[in-house]
Amino acid sequence: MAASGAGLVADEADGEDAVREGSAAGGRALGQRGLRGDTQVWPRAEAVPGASRRVVRQVLRVVELDALPMPPGAGTVFAGRRFLVVDDGCGVALELAGMLERQGAQVRTPRDVDGDCDGLIHLAALRPGAAGVLPQAYDGIRRALDGGLRWLVVASGAGGRFGWRFDGGGIGDPAPGAGLRGLARAVAQEYPEVLVRALDVDTKDTPRAVAQRFMAELLDAEAPVVVGHEGDLRRGISVVPAELHGEPVVPLGPDGVVLLTGGARGATARVALELARTSGCHVEVMGRTPEPAGEPAFPDVPDEAGLRRALVAKGQSGEIEATIRRILADREIRRNLEALREHAASVRYHAGDVRSPHVVREIVGRVQARRGRLDGVVHGAGLAEDRLVRDKTPESFERVYRTKVDGACALAQAVRPDIGFFVVLGGIAGVHAGRGQSDRAAAADACGTLAHAWRTRLRGRVLVAHFGPWARGPKWATGDAGLIEPDAGAAALLREIAHGDEAQVVFTGAAR
Ligand SMILES: NC(=O)c1ccc[n+]([C@@H]2O[C@H](COP(=O)([O-])OP(=O)(O)OC[C@H]3O[C@@H](n4cnc5c(N)ncnc54)[C@H](OP(=O)(O)O)[C@@H]3O)[C@@H](O)[C@H]2O)c1
To answer: How many CA atoms, within 13 angstroms, populate the side-chain half-sphere of residue 237?
Structure first.
């Protein structure tokens, strides 16, 4: 990681405040307390009911599962049931079709989901050279669920260890099946009557051996949703507590440069502030909203209801809600950029859509050209459009998924391999799913999986941080006691970047 002298001298008062020397802010007293006043964007920790200052850190581990008995050669288990086996093109679908038929099923092996069925086995990610099957595969899976599905198995071919050992070679590439585990977990929660399995297999096994594993899983209703098979070994994923010690300070000085997508708003803005506060680095933030310019609209009207009244009084009739959203976004960006300027060596805002690889390349190139370096990236851009699968359109799923996953992939490609840290803010849904969060679950899970592929190119710290909800406005502050207090969340992330080495880490509030 490119590091330089931090230039920070801790104030002995309580260790939280700091005085910066020789930086752009020039000897001003800085720190959290200095911020708490007009420019405070986030609620004070003590003002948020249920928020926890203690953040629980958990890591993911592969665990051994009991082997399953060999499936019987023939029988009537699936008598009269209709199965669709989306073809892998390599013989697994054909083998599996034969086995299902010998159990009484009627089986078809199309290239995509093309009608109602009782059982759907989705093998598209096993095709040689396949690109990521999500988000496209969501539509067919949703339609099948709508039609009254009873069995759903989605396959990935990342070697039976979920791609965690991927070394960059062609075999066991986690990319084609990325996100399917997250989607499967969410579907399992929303459709408890359906047997749901996300099966990771080793494509070096014979098609017959792989098909047998699918049959065995279909016949075991009790197994966990996520299972991997490598040879005779059967595995699952477990989430276990693991503490990490060390100062929450990324080794970065005032000449360091960090790019944060989504960094002008929401949780990522809080991370940006903490990075700036502890290092005084240059901060480059990116969002779709154009950079606010000119005088703020209705500066004396503090809230949404007041803005609605003011706009109606002004004679605006159409698009009032969109205008209010724009004004509020504009205010949040102004406040956050102002707060950042208190601490950062410089702050620059880039308007652009992170889903576009071209735009991302252009912005990364611009930053590198101007500053001569880019030390870290935090990809915090994300959308929340929660809805149950039965109500979630493919367009919405795609929007949420691509913002997180395509954005992350574009950034991972655009940065230089020697970047100090590359961080994606995933979500707890990526590990535990959550009703109504199939898109976020799939996207965060995909990033967690792809982190192992990014690690083959990027030499610095690669991390997907799955956060539980942070305490703040009504959107997230659901009142449950597992909320993360924002200062604590940002500090946990910085500590993880500086001292951790896991590809995926889960952070929750203490009560969860
Ligand atoms: N807040 C939480 O409790 C929480 C918990 C777990 C994980 N997370 C994760 O943390 C991140 C921030 O969450 P948040 O709740 O703070 O979200 P937020 O307030 O809605 O902010 C999202 C940010 O992403 C930007 N963005 C969205 N789509 C974009 C695109 N296509 N291109 C560029 N920028 C885009 C938005 O800016 P524009 O609107 O200007 O584009 C905004 O700055 C998300 O990735 C979320 O999944 C948050």
So the answer is: 27
In Å, how far from its chain's centre is CA 445?
Answer: 6
pLDDT tens digits, one per residue of 303-357: 888 888 888 888 877 788 889 989 999 999 999 999 999 999 999 999 999 999 9
What is the CATH number for 367? 3.40.50.720
Q: Give 272-290 pLDDT, tens digit per residue.
A: 999 999 999 999 999 999 9
Asked if the structure places residue 482 within a domain, the reply is yes
Q: Which residues contact 270 (CB under 8 A, 6 or more apart)?
A: 41, 42, 470, 486, 487, 489, 490
Distance from residue 460's CA to the centre of ligand 1 (Å): 24
Domain ends where: 211, 231, 251?
231
C-beta 466 within 6 A of ligand 1: no
Ligand 1 geometric centre to CA of 369 (Å): 26
Please check whether residues 113 and 89 belong to one and the same domain.
yes
- Structural domain that includes position 350: 8-59+243-293+341-509
Residue 387 DSSP code: -
Residue 262 Cβ < 6 Å to ligand 1 = yes
- pLDDT of 471 reads 86
Report the run of H or E that residue 188 belongs to, with start and end.
Answer: helix 180-190
Find the angle CA(334)-CA(335)-CA(337) to the nearest 5 degrees.
65
Q: Do residue 47 and residue 124 come from a single domain?
A: no
Look at the chain and report how many structural domains it folds into. 2
Residue 151 lies in a domain: yes
Give the Å distance between the CA of 85 and the centre of ligand 1.
37
Q: Which helix (H) or strand (E) holds 345?
A: none
